[in-house]
Amino acid sequence: METTADSSNDWPIPFALRSRSAPISFESGEDLDLAAAADGDDDAFVRLVERHQEKVFRFCCQWLPNAEDAREATQDTFIRAYLALERYRREGRFSTWLFQIALNQCRDRLKSKAGSQSRHTDSLVKGGKSDDLICPAPAPDEAVALSGDQERLGEAIEKLPMKLRAVVIICGVEGMSQETCAEILNISVRAVEGRFYRARRQLEAFLREG
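The structure assignment produced for this chain is given below.
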């Protein structure tokens, strides 16, 4: 079954990616919506999608510069979350769980032949438009902004091994904490620190060579 905006009516919830018509509170109501969604309240799950869709889409754009691939990965992330909601462990953060699912979706697409063929030559830092959501240009922090040439930096990040690239995207590009990164990757904070250090050294070497 296709998971496009036009096929949203085929699913129990109509959460085709779209712009929000009204501000959504990130601080109140999430626990209530999670409980209600787990009990079968589809409107509650739609509210969860509206809270998190832009963050998840931005994250997918870092892995899949082709905006259509990123949009589909985001859509599939929420479909899988919806189907697995009863198994979600409430002691963890919902956003972290979503990023774990999104990362797996992006990795699967990168590994698949179809995903690699559909990727264009868009730079990691350029982004692209997809329906109402746009892949934003990431704003690397000081630890990642090793050069004023953002296009070359994007190329360097794409050349990193998957494990190192993940910590750069999560901590450096998205600005999440090392603790959150550890939760998403299911590794220790010490491992995150080590991978980030190795990634930075490889990025520096690539940029010096250019």
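Interim note for the steering committee: The mean pLDDT is 76. Strands lie at 129-130, 133-134.
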